[in-house]
Amino acid sequence: MSLTRRHVLSLGAAFGAGATLPAWAQGKPLFETLNMFVPAAPGGGWDGTARAIEKASKAAALVGNMPFENVGGAGGMVGLPRYVNQRKGQGNSLMVGGSVMVGAAIANKSPVTMRNVTPIARLTEEAGVVAVPAGGKFKTWKDLEAALKANPKAVPVAGGSAGGTDHLLLGMIIKALGGNARDAAYVAFAWGGPANAAILGGQVAAGISGWSEFEAQISAGKMVALAVSGNKRIPGVDVPTLTELGVKVTAANWRGVFAPPGITKPQRDALTEFMSKLHDSAAWKQELQTRKWTDVFLTDAAFEREIDADIRETEQVMKELGLA
Fold first, then answer.
1. What is the 3-state secondary structure (H, E, C) of 229-260?
2. Are 191 and 213 in contact (CB under 8 A)?
3. Are 75 and 159 contacting, i.e. CB atoms less than 8 angstroms apart?
4. Same domain, 117 and 263
5. Minimal CA–CA distance to 253: which of 125, 62, 78, 74?
């Protein structure tokens, strides 16, 4: 039986937008097995990104199996050397990483950095959110702002790894309010679960993270979102930006995927093709919409240039804030 493009389109219409075509109509996946390495514990932003990649790539019939390995600690600086050393030359392996890893490498003076892996694709960008526990001391942004102006050392704020995006955002806020970023009472957590627990348990006064990591608690009324850090509001979310509130600070957390060092050009091309097809799939577009991630897709040399620029800029900001 021959299968024309018209037949495939008819099948797609018959099965519906959200349905999956049978295996004979989908063709062979690009990777029978693609190993996913997450340099963080389960439940955080990188793990969530990896799980979204798995879900969408399987829905789009791009991959057969996607085994996971999670190695958390120090903003990715525990897992990254393991990935570099153990996965070298493996063309069927991807690691999730992002801007948090840039700052963490600087803060930890790590000899292994993002420059030791092979950039494949930048995927998403997510604004940060400043949130407080619903029954906490601070009810509005002005309450929190006044406390940070008066004595930032007395306002413990939870977030991700030291030197990461959340840490930098708090430092920039304090500096914008006229204080010294070195006075920030930042409480670093390896992943979102413990940070959420600390906020809800009243162990800290506030928290900073990506919207997707706090959304469930905010929707349940257990946390109150006071501000977001993007240059515009998150679509469908009625929370003002810091700029709207008079604080001239914007920041976003980008995430992407990387291959090990030592892979061949054909191997890199195959991984880039995989991510490009994933990016173009309806399943991935649905993930972006559901998780309120901004699409900032970029591959190859352009992605490498962005990483180099991000490292230089982050080094400068961390020096200015006294964090490096």
1. CCCCCCCCCCCCECCCCCCCCCCEEEEEEEEC
2. no
3. no
4. yes
5. 125
Task: Copy the structure tokens of residue 32.
Answer: 């029978």
CATH number at residue 87: 3.40.190.150
Q: Is 141 exposed, middle or buried (0-12, 13-18, 19+ CB in 10 A)?
A: buried
pLDDT at 162: 86
Look up tokens 């389109």; give the residue. Answer: 9
Domain that holds residue 206: 126-228
pLDDT digits (tens, 9 = 90+) for 84-114: 999 999 999 999 999 999 999 999 899 999 9
Residue 236 placed within a domain: no
Pairing of strands 63-65, 118-133: unpaired
What CA–CA distance (Å, rounded) separates 34 from 306?
A: 25
Using the 8-state DSSP alphabet, how is residue 297 labeled? E
Helix (H, G, I), strand (E, B) or coil at 203: coil
Secondary structure letter of residue 77 according to DSSP: T
Looking at residue 108, the DSSP 8-state letter turns out to be T
